[in-house]
Amino acid sequence: MVNVTPQEVTIAAISTPPGAGGIGIIRMSGERSLEIIKDIFQPAGNIIVFESHRFYYGTIVDPERDQTLDEVLMVYMSAPRTYTREDVVEIHCHGSYLILQSVLELLINRGAQLAEPGEFTKRAFLNGRIDLTRAEAVIDILAAKTRKGVDLALEQLSGRLYHQVDHMRQRLVEVRAYFEVAIDFPDEDVEIVNRDEVLERLRHELLLPLDELINQAESGRIIREGISVVIVGLPNVGKSSLLNTLLQEERALVTEIPGTTRDTIEEFLDINGIPVRIVDTAGIREDAERVEQLGIERARDQVNRADLVIFLADGSRPFEAADQELYQTVKHKPLIVVLNKCDLPLQIDLTAAPEVFSEPIKISAVTQDGIDQLKNAIFSRVTGGAEQWGEDGCRPNIRQKAALVRARNAAEGICEGLAFGLSSDLVTIDILECLEHLGEIIGETTTEDVLDLIFEQFCLGK
Ligand SMILES: Nc1nc2c(ncn2[C@@H]2O[C@H](COP(=O)(O)OP(=O)(O)OP(=O)(O)O)[C@@H](O)[C@H]2O)c(=O)[nH]1
Ligand SMILES: [Mg+2]
């Protein structure tokens, strides 16, 4: 058999999610795409040549059995103006998983190979159409939980992070060129390289932007992954009512009977672009019967795992020893103290527990008073009031941040070397290392196993 490199294989996959839908799309990429589709696609009308980037209406026919599998639209896109930069064919079938499976089987029988998750995007990367930051942006777009998450990913897809990193690399390559001249002509070192000038430039054009990018990574993590907020309190304080009000939906059962909620209830909420997993829990009390007790254990477990806890108290009754005890068990967590039922006459003595009620947020889950303040409080606790939250900009992911930190360490090495008058060849070692780490971010010097890890995160057919 002839040896083929992996990219010479033509790949195919169902690109739409499983289940029934209006349409379902199969995608094929590779040099044999056109040949394979010609074998099984019968265009309506007398068409001899398929023009690139044009839809054709027709049927998919299994030639062996002379059986029509579906009525479809087919588009052939010739390389390189395609997602992968290879020849690509898309078959738009009816959205039935059975049809899609049988059409895919036909392609496989004719020599296409089932694509790995993310293989189309991996080819786009390997064929140089997109760099690694843009490939990762594709993952982010598919996984984004809020509109803000989508917007950030789209910016990264447009190459914003790539260009920033590339700009730093170009500056470094220039600096490296100076020093190489210096190594070649050691006696003229002093005249050729003005070290102070280079140092100043590196601080502004390398260290500073690296620091900024590293600082933005935490907000990127939060926008991508979101946070979990757990509502705890004694029975009947209004936890489920608060959940419902936040969701604007009657999600959890609410009754005047203490012990209504027994299991944890989780829902998703978008607070100013931050994906928040909000969890309602069973009211915590000592004398609960068996099922309720299990719910309380779950509640405690959720508190342990939460990024932020809302401690809810009922303002329409006195603050009891049980409230105080519960507070003691959660106060080590990042906490927002909320006083509910403020539409009723205040019966709680806030001065009796000054530690708890130094800055309570007063709400009513029934009239919805104070709910916006609560959302704002959640937002500012998460963002730490950081200014850059409102701004657009690059938000590196964890992998990119790690490489940025390594690049920064090397950059610091360069600057120290320059400041302490190290020889040009020693400074060059740090320059090369810094270039290597910047290259990891955009995928130029990324190792194979890291690439595999990245593309494994994709879904099939992307
Ligand atoms: N007036 C008033 N009543 C409220 C408010 N919030 C909740 N309630 C009432 O308080 C009672 C208990 O509310 P829930 O939301 O079920 O309380 P919970 O904390 O989830 O209770 P458990 O699930 O039993 O722990 C219900 O009768 C609610 O209608 C509020 O802001 N104002
Ligand atoms: Mg409840």
Protein traits:
462 residues; alpha/beta; Gyrase A, domain 2; Four Helix Bundle (Hemerythrin (Met), subunit A); Rossmann fold; 3 domains; 7-stranded mixed sheet; 6-stranded mixed sheet; 15 helices; 45% helix; flat; binds guanosine-5'-triphosphate; binds magnesium ion
In short:
The chain is of the alpha/beta class. The protein has helices spanning 33-40, 97-109, 119-126, 132-143, 147-157, 160-184, 189-192, 195-225, 239-247, 290-305, 321-330, 371-383, 398-419, 424-442, 448-456; strands at residues 11-14, 21-29, 41-43, 54-62, 67-77, 88-95, 113-114, 227-232, 265-271, 274-280, 308-314, 335-340, 361-362.
Describe the model.
By secondary structure, the protein is of the alpha/beta class. The chain folds into three domains: 6-115, Gyrase A, domain 2 (2-Layer Sandwich); 136-222 and 397-456, Four Helix Bundle (Hemerythrin (Met), subunit A) (Up-down Bundle), CATH 1.20.120.430; 234-388, Rossmann fold (3-Layer(aba) Sandwich). It is 45% helix and 18% strand. The chain has 15 helices and 13 strands. The chain has helices at residues 33-40, 97-109, 119-126, 132-143, 147-157, 160-184, 189-192, 195-225, 239-247, 290-305, 321-330, 371-383, 398-419, 424-442, 448-456; strands spanning 11-14, 21-29, 41-43, 54-62, 67-77, 88-95, 113-114, 227-232, 265-271, 274-280, 308-314, 335-340, 361-362. It has a seven-stranded mixed beta sheet with strand order 3-4-5-6-2-1-7. A six-stranded mixed beta sheet has the order 9-10-8-11-12-13, with helices on both faces. A hairpin with a 2-residue loop joins strand 9 (265-271) and strand 10. The longest helix has 31 residues, at 195-225. It is flat and about 80 Å long. The chain starts with 10 loop residues before the first strand and ends in a 6-residue tail after the last helix. The model has no long low-confidence stretch (mean pLDDT 92). Bound molecules: guanosine-5'-triphosphate and magnesium ion. The site of magnesium ion has 6 residues, from helix 9. Residues 239-240, 252, 260-261, 280 line the site of magnesium ion.
